[in-house]
Amino acid sequence: MATLAQLIDDLVTANRILATQGIVDSFGHVSIRHPDNPKRYLLSRSRAPERVETGDIMEFTLEGDPVDAKGRKPYLERFIHGAAYEMRPDVMSVIHNHSPGVIPYGVTGRKMRPIMHMCATIGYEVPIWDQRTRFGDTDLLVTSMAMGRDLAKKLGKGRTALMRGHGAVVVGHELRATVYTAVYLELNAKLQMQAEAMGRVKFLSKGETAKVAETTSPANINRAWENWCRKADRPYREQ
Ligand SMILES: [Zn+2]
Q: Phi then psi for 75, rounded to 5 degrees?
């Protein structure tokens, strides 16, 4: 069992990996549910993920209130995280990003489907949440629990959802698997766009998607994680 300090260290690493893999730029964030208190989560203060350090990690209630802010400013869109943890007891990690490949799918309504085996963990269906449907004209940021809950509802039981004109949310049963899904969601978007420009695409079937997702083992994920740690110049911890 990893200690809280090790998990926080992994969370810092996840920030750096998402940045080096091009999933987040100066914006976007990643959190984990608190291992000792399911009604809390851990997320950096408002800072570019590439710059996040241990001292930036803050604790929040599911409603998004900092437990001990110590003068640190939280992300405006932290409600994405709390609402997902509230609605989904199985979710242990949440990523919100604006990776460029996913944006066209959110605005055209073109369905994203897993195009190759590595991308199966994105799920057979990737729903699209349109903030305008319920909240009218906004600045497109998820700045309240009402918005976060509406987004979590659209996510349903899945692992990914797109946000129209904004980005995506990715959830998972643990941090490394969630980072893995976010990386392959972006790759799927790029490959699908290339393939659809060439002709009709034969996507993974529902059965194939379920089988690959089931057999994606922690060993697979750790192999990627170790490689990504090295690229991000972060130490690798066996798990
Ligand atoms: Zn955002």
A: -65, 140
Q: Strand 160-163 relative to strand 167-172: parallel, antiparallel, unpaired?
A: antiparallel
Do 209 and 124 touch, CB atoms closer than 8 A? yes
- Cβ-based neighbour number of residue 210 at 10 Å: 14
Distance 147 CA to ligand 1 centre (A): 12
- How many angstroms is it from 172 CA to the middle of ligand 1? 18
52: exposed, middle or buried (Cβ count in 10 Å: 0-12, 13-18, 19+): buried
| Residue carrying structure tokens 């690798």 | 236
The C-alpha R_g of the chain, in whole angstroms, comes to 17
Neighbour tally for 28: CB within 10 Å: 22
Determine which one of 77, 86, 174, 186 is catalytic.
77
Q: What is the pLDDT of residue 239?
A: 86
- The alpha carbon of 87 and the centre of ligand 1 are apart by a number of angstroms equal to 20
Within the chain, strands assigned E span 29-33, 40-44, 57-61, 93-97, 128-129, 160-163, 167-172
Active site residue 77: yes
pLDDT at 3 over 90: yes
Residue 135: other Cβ atoms inside 10 A: 15
61, 67 Cβ separation under 8 angstroms: yes
For residue 233, the model assigns a pLDDT of: 97
- pLDDT tens digit string along 19-76? 999 999 999 999 999 999 999 999 999 999 999 999 999 999 999 999 999 999 999 9
